[in-house]
Each structure stands twice: as C-alpha cells, then as structure tokens.
Design a protein that fits this description.
By secondary structure, this protein is α/β, with parallel strands linked by helices. The protein contains seven helices and 22 strands. The protein folds into three domains: 1-79, Nucleic acid-binding proteins (OB fold (Dihydrolipoamide Acetyltransferase, E2P), Beta Barrel), CATH 2.40.50.140; 114-133 and 235-418, Rossmann fold (3-Layer(aba) Sandwich); 142-230, no CATH class. Strands 7-21-22-20-19-16-17-18 form an eight-stranded mixed sheet, with helices on both faces. The chain has a six-stranded mixed sheet with strand order 1-5-6-4-3-2. It starts with 17 loop residues before the first strand and ends with a strand.
Length: 420
C-alpha cells in the first residue's frame, strides 16, 4: 500500500493480522504509536523504541487501528516481567504499564502530559511526574469489580464488555485486592465495589443497573446498595478525620490527599479573613483545609452535586461553622451565583475525569479570584480547560504532576492560575 494510505470502510479488516512494528512515542490512553502501510497502529503492552510483533485487536476502518504486542523482538532496557498474571494481551485492561520499570512509567506519563498541554493548550511544559509515598502494588483502596453472567467478580478487558474473572488484584490494597468477595458469586448484580479506610476496615457495595428508560445505547445508571461493612469509612488527613460513605468519592492512593492538600494550600497563600470557593467538594477534604487557612473570620463555600458527598461534608465540617458544602451541581450558573455572593480570593476545582468543562471554568474566571487551583486526573481535559484561561489573559504559574495511579496510564496534575 502506498504511503499516506487511509483505509476506507470497504477495505478488509486487519483484525487478527500480525504486524512487525517499530514502536514510536507513547500516547494518551496507555498505548504507543506505530505505523504500518500508511496507517497509525495504537499498540498496548509495548515501550517506545521496541520492535514488536503485534496482533490487531480492533479495526473500524479509517486511518488507525489498535493492536497488542504479542511478542517482543527487540526489547527496551526498561521492560520487566509484569508481576500480575492477568496483565497480558487479552487479559485484564486495568493496568497499562506493568511491563515497564517504575521510573520509565513516570517518564512516559510526563511525556503524555507535555504532549497534551502542547497540542491542546499551547503550553510548553518540561516537568516530571513525581512519585507518591508507597509501592507500585497494594495501593488502590477502592476497586469496582464487574460481575460476569455466572456471578463471578472480575475486571474488564481493554475497551471491551468482556469480563476476566480474577482471584486477586495486585494493585489493590489489603482487603480490596484480595477481598473474600472474589471467591463468592453475585448473581443479579452489575458491579461490586470494595473499599478500605485508614483503619483497615473494609466495606462492600452492590451496584445494580436500573432498567433503561429508553431504547438508547447509553448505559443505565447504577444504584448503590450497602452489602457488608460500616456505614462510614474513616480517613485522617492533616490532623483531621473525615467520614465518607463506602460508595462515595475519596482519593484512592493513601498518600494522595495529604500531598494534594499541601501543594494546594501552598499555592493558595490564603490569609485569615479571606474567602474561598471549593468546587466538586466531595466529603469536604479541600473545604476543611481551606477553612483552616482563612480561620473563623473568613469563609469557605463548597459545591457538591452528589447527595451522599454533601451529607458527609456536613458532618465533616461540623466543627468549622465558617465552612459549608451545599448540595448543588457544579454548572456555570451555580458557580456564578456562588461566586457573586462570596467574592472568593481563591477558587479550587477537583472535577471528575471529564474535567470541569470550559463553561464552568469561564464562570470561575469571570469571578476574578486572585488564584485558581485546578486538580485534574486527566491531562487532556485539563489542557482543554486551561486553554480558556490562557485565552482570557490568565497566567499558568505552576503545574505539578503526581503518579497517583501506579501501573496505569492515569496521572494527577495540579495547575495554578493567577490573574494577570
């Protein structure tokens, strides 16, 4: 096929073909980029610089397809044997980099962050991805296991609804990765989530799919029901204890919350009597930290759309009457309303992986705070939103990245924006 060839829908699929590929740079999503006959091939289980034999696993036509490296012909010096027996082509899709040394994992993530910032936001960044305290395995304090048709627990294959039953997840913390629930059957459930707190107390939550209301292909919402364990899990951060429902959001890496609070507060430079706005406040982690800085003469307001999160925050902030989390979805309208009354000096955002969206960030910037702190777990969403700030004349004064999800392609970033 000639150079520049782009496959059309009428061309035969490459699925099942084996291609010898020279592996190029890492890309966002846990794969590397290679090229064959004018098409891009996104290859998993490879490392830049390797030569591999890859089997095509997905081909929908067009200019690219996806493949797994099934044999390494010229290995990278950074290649290691994956510790997990499910981390291989055709196996569990949860971990992207178990075949890569720890240092190279972090450098690959740094390359992805730099590429996303450059391409989507025009930002040139040459930072590093910093490790968090702890090991590559045994860190994940919350895992949502899928339930197979025969009721067994497992994890999905990459980009697939097919479930791989497992006996143990090595990145899971004790009580989560080796939960006894893995040996039981759970007919009728969609997922089972295992979570553990700072005291080693574990809880199980069942998730069932509500009946779809229409005939669309969108996944129906999941209804959470406690199965085993306490009503609240407890975590201690910066000298304060937080309670949260087992199905509620909490940082899954044991060292993440403490690290992110330290970085955020240093960037905020809040003074007693000032005001701060905390968006996507969850159980009140950042709200409480900001409240400690402004003191009882100041005020901190948080917005959280999840009812359970807002309820947990109310209890966690009971001893801080100048801090409050309101049950509100974070939208441009709710942000504008809250900021209009509060007039915050600092706004902190910790949105889900999809990011805040440009509308929410535009509303934040329109409030004219002194500093905006954006905690992000997806570099592409972060870069998209930062572009809005830069176009509005704001300055990116700090961007740090942390390996809060070892063995996976995910990375946490904290960006600090200041008004020009």
């Amino acid at each position: 096929m000639p150079a520049g060839f782009a496959m059309t829908a009428s061309e035969p699929s490459w699925v099942g073909q084996r291609l010898e590929l020279a592996v190029g740079p890492v890309a966002h999503g846990g794969h590397c980029v290679a090229r064959h006959s004018g098409r891009v091939v996104f290859v998993r289980h490879a490392i830049p610089g390797e030569t591999v034999l890859a089997e095509v696993t997905e081909d929908r036509g067009g200019s690219f397809c996806r493949a797994d490296a099934v044999r390494v012909l010229d290995p990278s010096p950074d290649r290691v044997e994956p510790p997990c027996r499910y981390a291989h082509p055709g196996g569990c899709g949860g971990c992207d980099f178990q075949h890569v040394t720890a240092g190279r994992q972090r450098s690959l993530k740094a390359e992805v962050v730099a590429e996303q910032l450059s391409r989507l936001a025009g930002i040139e960044w040459s930072g590093t991805v910093e490790p968090l305290a702890g090991e590559l395995l045994g860190w994940r304090r919350r895992i949502r296991y899928a339930v197979s048709r025969d009721g067994r627990l497992g994890l999905h294959k990459h980009r697939s609804s097919e479930i791989v039953p497992i006996e143990r997840c090595l990145i899971g913390a004790p009580g989560v990765g080796d939960t006894p629930a893995l040996a039981r059957h759970w007919p009728g459930l969609t997922e089972v989530e295992a979570a553990v707190d700072d005291d080693g107390v574990t809880a199980l939550t069942a998730l069932r799919a509500d009946r779809p209301r229409g005939r669309g292909r969108q996944r129906p919402p999941l209804r959470a029901e406690p199965i085993e364990g306490p009503e609240l899990l407890h975590y201690r951060v910066a000298g304060r204890e937080f309670g949260t429902r087992p199905a509620g959001f909490w940082q899954t890496h044991p060292a993440a919350a403490e690290t992110f609070i330290r970085v955020a507060l240093a960037a905020a430079e809040l003074r007693p009597g000032e005001r701060a706005l905390d968006l996507y406040a969850g159980a009140g982690l950042f709200t409480a930290a900001l409240a400690g800085e402004v003191g009882e003469t100041g005020r901190v307001l948080g917005l959280e759309g999840d009812p359970a999160g807002a309820t947990a925050a109310a209890a966690n902030l009971a001893e801080l009457p100048w801090a409050e989390v309101r049950r509100r979805p974070v939208t441009p309208a709710t942000v504008a309303a809250a900021a209009g009354v509060l007039r915050p000096a600092v706004v902190l955002l910790d949105p889900p992986r999809t990011g805040s969206g440009t509308g929410v960030l535009a509303a934040v910037l329109a409030a004219e705070p002194r500093t905006v702190i954006y905690v992000a777990c997806d570099p592409a969403a972060l870069a998209r939103d930062l572009r809005v700030a830069l176009d509005g004349g704001w300055q990116l004064t700090q961007l740090t990245a942390y390996d809060a999800y070892p063995m996976t392609h995910h990375v946490e970033c904290i960006a600090v924006l200041r008004s020009a």
